[in-house]
Amino acid sequence: MDNNFNAYEEAAEMLKALAHPVRLCIARGLLKNGPCNVSYMQDCLEIPQSTVSQHLQKLRTSGIVKAQRQRHEIHYTIENEMVKQLIRTLFGEE
Fold first, then answer.
1. Going by C-beta distance under 8 Å and a sequence separation of 6 or more, which residues neighbour residue 32?
2. For the whole model, what pTM was predicted?
3. Which of 15, 61, 67, 77 has its CB surrounded by the most CB atoms within 10 Å?
């Protein structure tokens, strides 16, 4: 058994955070389209803004996305390189 069990715990937490269709879609969209705000994501996903915000909060808490204020908007980007690699692998994208 591997002595560095923390690495498994961190990976499991990341996978739990992504283990929802909306959060996976948000992560893929951010990787594919670059920085986006909540309104743009809401239009693409066709779900309420409050729902998008809740999912983004989970992704932020997990260290998967980063929020940056640009004037009156907050734009989100994928922060975690492992997540970028995972999304590319899952969806066969470069």
1. 93
2. 0.87
3. 67
CB-based contacts of 58, cutoff 8 Å, min separation 6: 17, 20, 23
Q: How far is CA 85 from CA 10, 25, 89, in A?
A: 16, 15, 6
Residue with tokens 């066969």: 92
Distance of alpha carbon 76 from alpha carbon 30, whole angstroms: 7
Per-residue pLDDT of 46-89, as tens digits, reads 899 999 999 999 999 999 999 999 889 999 999 899 999 999 99
What is d(CA 91, CA 63) in angstroms, rounded to the nearest whole number?
21
**Cα gap 25→20, rounded to integer Å:** 9
Token readout for 92 is 């066969």
